[in-house]
Design goal:
By secondary structure, this protein is an alpha+beta fold. The chain has a single domain (2-38, 111-272, 307-421), classed as Outer membrane efflux proteins (OEP). Helix content is 66%, strand content 12%. It has a 4-stranded antiparallel beta sheet with strand order 2-3-5-6, with no helix packed on it. Helix 4 (114-181) runs antiparallel to helix 5. The chain is rod-shaped.
């Protein structure tokens, strides 16, 4: 309920902002909250809890009186009779038809702890199911990460290409003035025109990619996001200590083992004796007096003891099977941790790579900027052609793009590292 209210408030804030100002600023955490509220898995957790409560109430009926009603009518070919006759004693012959209706009451007194273990098994099953939902929600957040940073990367490309196009258009204005004055060849202007068209093509491609990425994020969050929505890039400065056991998937495997342990505990109880009380109220012919041909009421009460002292070692075999299943889950845990170590090491190298690239990018951008400025001045003086200028200008633009993209990739790699460990909130 708290999650729903939080998501609703987030939606109201976004909707209000969208109305007041066309551009909405959206954080990654906000996307998480909306995605969780929008996903059907949020309702699945409630369904698991409801099913558990119902099953628990069913188990509790084990210690409630069990009441049943039965009726029977019969006709038999022979009846009990005395093989001798006693003088002056009238022994009636029994009727061959019989009728009875019973009200039977059974009350379990002791089941060796079976009911308690069944409750523990259901609880373990609930925790396992809820953890599976948590694991799915965590993977949902990973998809939100991908869509969110994909939009950031596309936006950064668009921004830098527009800056480059603005610079080229400024140069084109000067070149056209030179063409008009007869000091510059028309081909120089044509080269710049062609480059502007090429950049426009790239912007068209990026616009469609951005629209697709925003649609994906809209579907994940359940909100109709404006194409002009502004995403606030998160910054991750410090990296946590690696841990291979914090992911919800690993916790799910542990709970699976707990569930199997609870199931294994029940198998041993199957051969423990059970004690129950019973009572019967009835009416029929004959009653408890088998020598009477009259309809009569009757009652009976007592204690019943039952013990399956030999089941051909079935419970031991079942326990062994469950033990093997627990070992299978243990191998899954070991495999998961191994894969986690590989993944975290790869992400660590990805982070280090981008940090080193960014350090080099700063030097490259500074040098390329100096060369591009010099090329621009030479173009204005007619010393070099537009093609030569574009070579340097594009190199400068690409260096800036590389630095910006490497910065975003660095934050994305750090986020993936945090996500892979299992520390997303």
């Amino acid at each position: 309920m708290k999650t729903f209210i939080k998501g609703f408030l987030v939606f109201m804030v976004i909707s209000g902002n969208a109305t007041a100002q066309q551009v909405v600023k959206l954080t990654l955490d906000t996307c998480y909250n909306m995605a969780v509220v929008n996903n059907p898995l949020a309702r699945q957790a409630n369904l698991y809890s409801e099913a558990f409560e119902l099953q628990e109430s069913v188990i509790k009926t084990n210690y409630l009186p069990q009441v049943s009603v039965g009726a029977q009518a019969g006709l038999q070919t022979d009846v009990t009779s005395l093989p001798i006759s006693i003088p002056n004693v009238n022994i009636p012959s029994l009727d061959k038809d019989s009728y009875k209706i019973n009200l039977d009451i059974n009350q379990l007194l002791w089941d060796g702890g079976l009911t308690k273990k069944q409750k523990e098994l259901e609880k373990a099953g609930l925790l396992s199911n809820l953890q599976s939902v948590e694991a799915e929600i965590y993977r949902l957040k990973e998809r939100v990460n991908q869509a969110f940073f994909n939009i950031l990367l596309i936006r950064e490309n668009e921004k830098l290409l527009k800056l480059s196009m603005s610079e080229i258009q400024s140069r084109l204005t000067r070149v056209r003035a030179g063409v008009k004055n007869g000091t510059v060849l028309q081909s120089n202007a044509d080269v710049l025109d062609a480059e502007i068209i090429r950049i426009e093509q790239s912007l068209i491609e990026l616009a469609h990619s951005r629209a697709a990425a925003i649609f994906r994020l809209s579907e994940l969050t359940g909100q109709s996001l404006n194409p002009d929505i502004e995403l606030l890039q998160p910054v991750y400065d410090s990296m946590p200590v690696p841990n291979t056991r914090l992911r919800p998937e690993f916790k799910f495997l542990e709970l699976q083992q707990d569930k199997l342990s609870a199931q294994q505990a029940i198998t041993g109880i199957k051969v423990i004796p059970r004690i129950s009380a019973f009572g019967t109220l009835g009416y029929g012919k004959p009653g408890l007096n088998m020598l009477s041909n009259q309809f009569d009421s009757y009652a009976m009460a007592g204690v019943r003891f039952s013990w399956t002292f030999w089941d051909w070692n079935l419970h031991k075999k079942e326990s062994k099977i469950i033990g093997i299943q627990k070992e299978v889950v243990e191998t899954q845990k070991e495999n998961f941790e191994r894969n986690q170590r590989i993944l975290l090491n790869n992400l660590k190298e990805e982070i280090l790579k981008n940090e080193n690239l960014i350090a080099a990018d700063h030097r490259i951008v500074k040098l390329r900027e100096s060369v591009a400025k010099s090329a621009g001045a030479q173009l204005d003086q007619g010393i070099i052609t537009s093609s030569e200028f574009l070579t340097e200008q594009n190199a400068h633009t690409q260096s800036r793009i590389n630095m910006s993209l490497h910065s975003i990739h660095l934050q994305y790699a750090r986020l993936n590292y945090i996500t892979a460990i299992g520390l997303l909130k």
